[in-house]
Amino acid sequence: MKRLLILLSLLLFFSLRSQQIFPLNEKFYIDSLQSVIKSTAPNTSKATASFLLSNYYRNSDSLLSKNYLKNGKELIQNNAFFIAKYYYYEGQYNMDRNKAKAAQSYQRSIKSLSKFKNEESDFLQSLAWYSYGVTQKDKEGYAPLVKIILEKSIPLVKKYEKSRNLGFLYTQFAIILTYNAQFEKAVNYNKKALEILERSYPNSAELFYTYLNSANNYCYQANGEEAKKYLEKAEKLIAPYPESSANAFYYYSKTLLYITKQKNSEALSVIEKGLFYAKKFNQNLLAQMFYFNKYDILKKLKRYSEAKTVLEDVLTEKSLAIDLNNRKTFYKQLSLLNEEIGNTKEALVWEQKYSKLNDSLNTENIKLEINKIESKYNAAEKERKIATLNAEKNQKDLEVNKKNSYLWGMGLILLLALSLLTFLFIIFRKNKKISEQKINEIKQKEELSLTKAILDGEERERERIARDLHDGLGGMLAGVKINFSTWSSNHLHPEKDKEFYKILGQLDNSVSELRHVARNLMPESLLNFGLETALNDLCEFYVRKDLEIDFQAIDIEKNLPLNIQLNIYRIVQELLANAVKHSEANNILLQCSQSGENFLITIEDNGKGFKKDIDKSTKSMGLHNLKNRVNYLKGKMEIHSDNQGTTINIELNTYGE
Q1: Which of 267, 349, 253 is nearest to 300 (CA)?
Q2: Do the beta carbons of residue 130 and residue 148 sit within 8 Å?
Q3: Is the CB of residue 585 less than 8 Å from the CB of residue 645?
Q4: How far is CA 480 from CA 346, 369, 605, in A?
Q5: DSSP label at residue 622
Q6: Where do the structural domains in the chain lie, given as residue ranges?
Q7: pLDDT-based confidence at residue 372 (cuts at 50, 70, 90)
Q8: To pair with 435 at 20 to 30 A between CA atoms, which of 10, 16, 42, 631?
Q9: Mean pLDDT in residue range 545-550
């Protein structure tokens, strides 16, 4: 549990530090920047104020943040230095929306800023390098991020020995050391930061967060007395600003201190104060961490039912549970809680979820060694594993082909059954002289029944095949790719061993393609987090550098039957795939809303459109399947298209079966 709390804290502070820190007096800071924009100051000053405001609002008000970023860009014209600054703040805006796009912006900023030799340029470069490392963390782990901090970020600002920016970077590095349980080294780097900040910047936000980092580090060492000293210093800095969002972070550190001192009842009241600020400033991740600490305390107090409810809410909200290792821990805790309460059946369900997720995670825990980062792997063992993986891949291919043949056979049988039923209906009509309207009603019901059988059969096979691909072959291929990448970085030369890197690229493409196939077959996020999250992930999947997708979800209920959610997901998947493939659009708007039993889907694009009545003339299987699913849910579809784009409106009945 202690290890998980350290991990969650690291997630929080990484989220905070992937940007410049804002002053504790936030209202004065915002008012000052807005005054600059409204004044007669030079355009460069107004541009800087706009960039800083964009960075401030990037998580709380994305539209306002985007407008400030756009306004700043319009003010800089052809100023090369400010264009380089714009790329950095463009990366900040995209950090939590599209990490790939953010990484590109950071690299462009670094390249442009390197042409200027001044303290502001060096600091922005160091931040851009640090933020770039954060964007790569999910793909490559913490090792590259550590190298970037030590070899890129810190050297850029170390020549400015009294700079608050150097203190900022020292405390960031201390956070990573804390995460790796290197507490003494973390203390040293926090002290380096404090030597600079206490002497030259005694009222700065950087000093406030360094105090909090130091207090947290001592809490993880169960040294409550030392932690209390630093927390009291932080309290003096934040006390004059009761309206600052930084109060939420202060109360989180205070919660850790009370937990360390085993003052569980007092910790619960502190958590409520922290939740007030976290909710007020839309700090969702921090709010969920408060709830997780609340769960931990309730469990210690043996208030198991309350603890169970809190943890289930954390799991449902997903901010923390989106990380698979966190989710695995939550499953295990829920299993143990239900066992304590006496709900053995529910405990077994959570234990099974834990075991399934644990088996699918083919990862290794890598302990960072800051002074020397290396990994040693046996080449012969890797060749053996590759041969094994190839054999398993061939076996999986055979199974997929077999299942496809089965699906085709089942479809033909159902089509024959449909033909037979139609023939029987005609004879029945002739013999019994049933009205044409009655026959049509019966035929429609039977067609819907057959469609349901086909769709249900497809989804079952999709789920089974996707599970086999993702949990089995996908995990093993991903593990091999990670091992090869790490091994090659220490043993091979990019220029001398191009053939190896070419093969490594092919393996990477294979992993991506396999994940793509598994995702299309059965979206895991739909099963775990529901329709709204799955649709959001689907939109992110289709986003390209030349294509923006704006997804709007309105009042989507979480308790929709799974088969209804699957059919809605497949309808949206087909709509997005058609728009991306055929429309040549650079902007797509997708809106999904629910009102009672009615579910509305609207998709608009600014592409080239298509011919009128294409839905009647085309033989496309995709459009045919789309109509089948709409009919299955007793829905209706309208298509409007011209040379300025296409709009499709679909109305579905969530009780369509």
Answers
A1: 267
A2: yes
A3: yes
A4: 36, 22, 40
A5: H
A6: 245-373, 379-521, 526-653
A7: very low
A8: 631
A9: 90
Distance CA 517, CA 510 (A): 10
Fold type of domain 526-653: Heat Shock Protein 90 (3.30.565)
Q: Give residue 542's identity as a one-letter amino acid code.
A: Y
pLDDT digit string (tens) for 594-632? Answer: 988 889 999 999 988 877 666 555 555 667 778 888 888
Q: Which among 657, 562, 639, 643 has a CA at the least distance from the CA of 601?
A: 639
CA–CA gap between residue 72 and residue 67 (Å, rounded): 9
Q: Summarize pLDDT for 441-493 with one digit per residue, the tens.
A: 656 666 656 656 565 666 566 556 655 555 556 566 666 767 777 777 777 77
- Are the C-beta atoms of residues 568 and 599 closer than 8 Å to each other? yes
Q: Do 488 and 507 form a contact (C-beta atoms < 8 A)? A: no
| DSSP H/E element including 231 | helix 224-238
Nearest alpha carbon to residue 641 among 564, 596, 581, 583: 583
pLDDT of residue 363: 45
For 1-51, give the DSSP string.
-HHHHHHHHHHHHHHHHTSPPPPS-HHHHHHHHHHHHHSS--HHHHHHHHH
CA-nearest of 386, 366, 388, 370 to 378 is 386
Report d(CA 334, CA 307) in Å as an integer.
Answer: 9
Per the rule left: phi > 0, alpha: psi between -120 and 50, beta: everything else, 283 is beta
**Any idea what the Cα angle at residue 635 is, between residues 631 and 641, rounded to 5°?**
100
CB of 193 closer than 8 Å to CB of 174: yes
DSSP state letters, 401-442: HHHHHHHHHHHHHHHHHHHHHHHHHHHHHHHH---HHHHHHH
The CATH architecture one would assign to domain 245-373 is: Alpha Horseshoe (1.25)
